[in-house]
Amino acid sequence: MPVKTSLIHIDGIGPVLFKSDRRCKRLSIRIKPFEGVVVMFPPGYSPHKALAFVEAKKSWIRKNKARIEEQEKAVTIFDETTNFRTRSFQLKIEKAPRDDVRLILNSGVLKVLYPQHINVADAPVQNAIRYGIEEVMRIEAKMVLPIKVRTFARQYHFKFNKVFIKNMKSRWGSCSSVNNINLNLHLMRLPEHLVDYVVLHELCHTVEKNHGPGFWRLLNELTGGKAKTLAAEMRQYRTTLY
Description:
Layout: E1 3-10, E2 14-21, E3 28-32, E4 36-41, H1 47-56, H2 58-73, E5 90-96, E6 102-106, E7 109-115, H3 123-156, E8 163-166, E9 173-175, E10 181-184, H4 192-204, H5 213-222, H6 227-234
Parallel strand pairs: 2-4, 5-7, 8-10
Antiparallel strand pairs: 1-2, 3-4, 6-7, 9-10
Helix pairs in contact: 3-4
């Protein structure tokens, strides 16, 4: 489907990308980290009306743009000094005489080789590093997490359907209405006792489908009275690498 774009500088906002796309049903404004301000509208929509809409929404755009820019500042930049490891691998980043970014996993080391002529902070390098880390964690999680679910289910007499490993942006885990257990591959970055807590949390949802008193009573029994303490400790960690 054809997409037409124009980048226009708007006083008080900066560059705004206008996109006409057949998949778009109405005029809308989108602001995301590292994507800037994007105005979407269907083909045939008046460019003058789109510009007027942006002018009318300037205050809202500035407010949300400032919030997004704060998020961008919190982004983790991986470089040669980064000390990043999970239970089975560590990250090693090196410049190399090459034209592309190369990922090599061997003997517990995820090596990232990037071209000498570009900056390690550049988006293509950082995106490749994050992709590599997440794919290795996915492999690791598939080896570790289903075993934990089965072990705890047998130990505490829970019944579940299937286990799925996912790259979830806002949750560490979930339990579906048919008792499928979904677990975030980023659990591989957490201490062992918190991984156990998340697995037990989701298994409890096979019995208690909400976070009512019955759920917390059950989870508390399984964690030796530490359910609320562990829940608070979980809030120290983010589900994303940045």
